[in-house]
Amino acid sequence: MHKSIRISVIIVIMIVVSSISAMAKADYSLYDLQNCKTTIKYDNNSMGAYVYGFTSDTLYSAVLLPQQMSSSVKIKGKIRCALQSESITYAFYEIDAKKKMYGLVGIDAFSGKCTYYDFNDIQSVLTNLITISGDYVYFMATDEIYAYMKVYSINGDYQGRIDFGYNSPNKLFNNNGVGYAVCDNGEIYRFNGLNAEYVTKIWKAVVPYNVGVNTIVTGEGAIYSLDGLALPEINIHNNKIIFTNSGYAYESGKSLVLIEDNKNKFIECNGNSKFILGYENSIAVFYDDYSYSVIGFEEFQDNTFNDDNNGVKPASNNNSEYFFTKDGYIRGVENTISIKQFKQKFSEGVKIYDSNGEEVTSGNVRSGYILDIDNNSYIISVNGDLSGEGNIKSNDVSKLMDFFIGSDNLSDLQMICADYNFDGVIDNKDLVIIARIAEFN
Fold this sequence. Notes:
Elements: E1 2-5, E2 9-13, E3 28-29, E4 41-45, E5 48-54, E6 58-65, E7 69-74, E8 78-85, E9 88-96, E10 101-108, E11 114-120, E12 125-133, E13 136-141, E14 148-153, E15 158-162, E16 169-175, E17 178-183, E18 187-192, E19 195-201, E20 208-210, E21 215-218, E22 223-225, E23 241-244, E24 247-252, E25 255-260, E26 263-268, E27 273-279, E28 282-287, E29 291-296, E30 301-302, E31 323-324, E32 329-333, H1 339-343, E33 351-353, E34 370-373, E35 376-382, H2 394-405, H3 412-418, H4 428-440
Parallel strand pairs: 32-35
Antiparallel strand pairs: 1-11, 2-7, 3-29, 4-5, 5-6, 6-7, 8-9, 9-10, 10-11, 12-13, 13-14, 14-15, 16-17, 17-18, 18-19, 20-21, 21-22, 23-24, 24-25, 25-26, 26-30, 27-28, 28-29, 31-32, 33-34, 34-35
């Protein structure tokens, strides 16, 4: 049984306080989310971009794109978890645990309208792990050796169960209104009624983040499609990337890079974003201080040389996400990328040479190789490849550790390779990323 009413929901319409220039500035604030601390989450789907969170008794919901609005509702109970499904922000809450009485509330992020559902006699489930697909709610159950899913209707009626055998589900998430489970071995399954369909497989013990419709990324920067479509090869090291139906954008140091119609553009930002969201032709950058900027695709600049842009200069026929610096380096090259794959990112006429001046036509691209493009030569810097072998292995980690303890120096090229996260500083953050990659190579 459920009831739909408009009740004590606080709705705030955000007002623009400043305009965007070449440097992205914060235009809106969601300071109420400070109350949520570690429970803040975000989502992008075919209807918009959202941020939400909760305290023990209050659910906060905000839509950042295509409009700006926030709502909150106080619950007569203890909130156990929250999730976003399409335009609705849901919270599952405990009314009386002894009597097994629970409830589900949903806030429409665009209108602030609340809908309540009763869930009684819920047994042997983890009430802090749920997901929703259409009119079904999925709970992780733990009353047997292996975990499985208990399925209820949105109105709280028990429907059945979904078993995974020994491959127990351990994480649940929602993407574009569809619920998913991540199992112990990294396999991801999509829920549809009382069925679960295999979708893809990720690394074990990693957390998936929504970065667009049917697209997720792990905290290490691995991108996965949930619908089997091919994704572009992108060299990132975190979850700060977003795909829309018009293109994709990601954070690189203190810039946002936009790839649209196979061309790359950029806009400067302050580099301390918490995450980025997107919808159609707009990007929302959410910062650590609970403010955010909305940037239209048209505000990104063509990637042309500017002395104020840290010396970054692209070649004229460069349609890749790489950057050409004025001191003669090309940055952002993925480790283990082949010569053939690398050349495909440019127009015809590109050649690659080794340090002896011999043209290289096969194998992997290595740090120290020379790229000849537009009658100019650039030294290739492969991210994390300090050894110049074209990949990241334990010897790259050792070189960086020796540098940290002062027992060895790094060349200018190696310094560029070691700055994996493009923040201009070589520190433990770079070491951790490089060491993780080396572990799997």
